[in-house]
Amino acid sequence: MTTDTQTESTNALLNKMRAAVLGANDGIVSTSAVVMGVAGATSDNQAIATAGFAALVAGALSMAVGEYVSVSSQSDAEKSFIRREKKLLKKNPVEEEAQLAEYYKNQGVSPKTAKLVAADLSRSNALGAHLRMHFGIDEDDINSPWQAAIASLIAFTAGGLVPFLAVVATPDGLKLQATFVAVLIALVATGYFSARAGSAHKGRAVTRVVVGGTLAMLLTYAIGMLFGVAV
């Protein structure tokens, strides 16, 4: 495996890890916000649990459908690029090879070496070379919409289960406190792993998700309380 291919594979894996962590974070924040909002409006445990479960299911399905549509559009465009490059290579391979040599020359490679590299790539994998040059894609690495949808559904569900299980399994007098603590711990974990996957500053990433998640819970709880008083 070449260095470029290894780098592309590593980046693809990191992107998938980041997407999974962010999907889990969405599940944590959105489900906890709904649970806290309903808890602010009523002390009815069944109503809180029902609202939490509905938010969990609806959010997971929404994420899955959204990811399916998004990745489908992307993969359709990538397949169109592939068909276009195949036609160009078949119609005028000489011109395409010259274009490839010009690309490497513009990257700082000497004209003589650029021609040799272009000729070698054109013999071994002309399509792959042109796809990377023009679009930065790999013919063998087109994302599957179904895989992306299922991964998003699982990630969101895993995150959403944290506040849902906390509010369902905790005794009445401790529901809000236990949910709040469980969500904070989960947010710290998702912030840490998202930063680690992206080689970002862990402290800032954790602070962002914790502050954002906390504000979401407090605001929805306050709105729930206002609604409950009004009713």
Distance between the termini: 65 Å
Contiguous low-pLDDT stretches (5 residues minimum) are none
Helical content band: over 70%
Beta content: under 5%
Structural category: mainly alpha
> In this structure, how is the largest beta sheet organized?
none
What gross morphology would you assign? elongated
Question: N-to-C SSE series?
Answer: HHHHHHH
Whole-number count of domains: 1
Total number of beta strands: 0
Number of helices: 7
- Rg (C-alpha, Å): 25 Å
Q: How confident is the prediction overall: mean pLDDT?
A: 84
Q: Please, could you describe this protein's structure?
A:
With 231 residues, this protein is mainly alpha-helical. It has one domain. It is 87% helix and 0% strand. The chain has seven helices and no strands. The chain has helices spanning 3-41, 45-91, 93-106, 111-134, 145-169, 175-197, 202-230. α2 (45-91) crosses α3 (93-106) and α6 (175-197) runs antiparallel to α7. The longest helix has 47 residues, at 45-91. The termini are far apart. 33% of the residues are buried.
Layout of strands and helices, then pairs:
Blueprint (H helix, E strand, L loop, with lengths): L2 H39 L3 H47 L1 H14 L4 H24 L10 H25 L5 H23 L4 H29 L1
